[in-house]
Amino acid sequence: MAPVLKDKVILVVGGSTGIGRATAIACGQAGATVVVGARDRAKAEEVAGKAARAGAPRTLGLPVDVRSSEAVDAFVSAAADSFGRLDGAVNNAGVEGRLAPMHRLTDADYAEIMDVNARGVFFAMRAEIAAMGESGGAIVNVGSVGSFTGLVGQSVYAASKHAVWALTRSAAVENAGRGIRINMVAPAGTETPMLHRVLQGDEEAMRGAAKMHPIGRFGTPEESAAAIVWLLSDAASFVCGQSIGVDGGYSATLGFNPQAALAG
């Protein structure tokens, strides 16, 4: 990968698995100094080490619980203080919650998802914007195709990802004049631990879900990471307040793939 993030300090919130892990490593490959945040310090440090081996000149792995605004503030401050500034941030922390129709969900189910997926992104963006200040920077939030549509059995997850899109657009227009670009990637089915939990490891369900994507397969974390790295880079200097679908054509068909249907 070309060193498109050379001399930039990038933090990744939710960097221990899936898209976050792939993004931290990809940022290292692109020459960035990488700060990895995860609830588990050991996992954050492990991924930071992988980013270093991929090419990051400096790395740091720190614990952060995005449900706590104090913890998020401390994490972002530590990242900026350790390396003198903050040039970019990726907000990937998320949970899928329990799959169930809305009328069977509890208050605790709602809070579990929204506290991480919506409040956590708000806490992170607030701290990142403050750390970047007038120096500018780039923030990429990880949304979902569920940021734009309903999801059966995942009503609160979809609501939380709608919130991520609203936060992205609102903060983008608030901060564009300060040189801070804020965008979102919206993956569809991606080969992550979360996907396997959602589909409960059911091979038939996995094959059926993959066929909903016109490309005919799930995405990889690395494919989402490539889009994120581009949005963080100067190559995307005029891209602000946008969502980039990394979805194999899913959103173009609203999840219906006529080729798969015709194939039986």
UniProtKB/TrEMBL annotation:
The cross-references to Gene3D superfamilies, in alphabetical order and at most eight, read:
NAD(P)-binding Rossmann-like Domain
Instruction: From the UniProt record, give one GO term of the biological process aspect.
Output: fatty acid biosynthetic process
Concerning InterPro entries, the annotation shows: NAD(P)-bd_dom_sf (IPR036291), Sc_DH/Rdtase_CS (IPR020904), SDR_fam (IPR002347)
Q: Give the signal peptide as a residue range, or say none if absent.
A: none
One Gene Ontology term of the molecular function aspect: oxidoreductase activity, acting on the CH-OH group of donors, NAD or NADP as acceptor
Q: Does the keyword Oxidoreductase apply?
A: yes
- Per UniProt, which keywords does this protein have? Oxidoreductase
Checking Pfam families in the record gives: adh_short_C2
Q: Which family does the entry's similarity section mention?
A: Belongs to the short-chain dehydrogenases/reductases (SDR) family.
Q: What is this protein called?
A: Oxidoreductase
